[in-house]
Amino acid sequence: MRILAAMSGGVDSAVAAARAVEAGHDVVGVHLALSRAGGTLRTGSRGCCTIEDAMDARRAADRLGIPFYVWDFSERFRDDVIDDFVAEYRAGRTPNPCMRCNEKIKFAALLERALELGFDAVCTGHYALLVDGPEGRELHRASDAAKDQSYVLGVLTAEQLAHTYFPLGTTPSKALVRAEAAERGLSVAQKPDSHDICFIPDGDTRGWLADKVGAAAGDIVDRSGAVVGAHEGAHAYTVGQRRGLSLGVPAPDGKPRFVLEVRPVSNTVVVGPREALATARIAGERFTWAGRAPASESFACQVQIRAHAEPVDADARIEDGVITVEPAVPFDGVAPGQTAVLYEGTRVIGQFTIDTTTSAVPAPV
After folding, report:
1. Model confidence, pTM
2. Helices (H), strands (E): how many in the chain?
3. Catalytic residues
4. Tell me: the pLDDT tens digits for 56-79?
5. Looking at the domain that runs over 277-359, which CATH code has it been given?
6. CA distances from 333 to 134, 146, 317, 361 (A)
7. Fold adopted by 2-183
8. Which residue ranges are tagged as binding site for ATP?
9. 352 pairs with which residues across the strands?
């Protein structure tokens, strides 16, 4: 196959490209320039897609003896990932930019260009398995549960899965990938993994959002609507947050209170007891299937609401264009804007963006 290897400059994508070459494929490496800030530098494990990452990717490609290019996707990344991130926070939701990047950049914009240029597939260093089943290609969890990335790949469609290549999916551990990189003479063998949001490399999400969204003071209220404090910008609060609330009125029972909801229209933050974070139902209109769709509009599944959360048994149903999921055990602190990925065992069924949540503990009347 002709394979376009997306090389981030990290150890995973470098080893993935190496395995593609070793398997006999015709491989070309490409690094995506996602920032217009030409002087962007990496700080330890923070950030990605920096100058250092581009140079590391080029060195890896040279070591493998494959052609290498840098493609400027910064405008598309700004429109589809950064602007979406800001818009979601303005709407009081908590988005996952890694999901949007996979959906809109790596497996949409990049794959589209790859196919136009005659490539058969895009190769990445994600830890996930592709299985060719009787009804088409399926996406499954990786062999290494600790590194499994099927959650952030849940946005991929059947057409995208058909042109995807994940060489690391069967690798038992990240330590083996690093050891292999060292054996292959790849300089990124011990490079730290990237953490946090790549376009906020200093990790100060609150400050970054304040600059983009603006900070307007407002009230913090309890579930009855009584004012119990004040905030300097609702964007700085997320569902489940406990610290930094600066409440002027203590709870009647003296127990800590947590953020339950962010209301951007009224610029208020709602707080309440820990038990009110239990979520009995989630629903959303924006859903896709990773391969074959469920045979029925009502089906049993397992649901994962964060990249490293434990999956929860649940019942799902689709009605009037809305998917609703009710877990067997309530979720803990779910925020609108998060992504729910549905599984059947190890297979990814699909995903949806959570629009509404229903607490398992009704608000006092």
Report:
1. 0.89
2. 9, 20
3. 101, 198
4. 999 999 999 999 999 999 899 999
5. 2.40.30.10
6. 38, 22, 22, 12
7. Rossmann fold (3.40.50)
8. 6-13, 32, 125
9. 287, 340
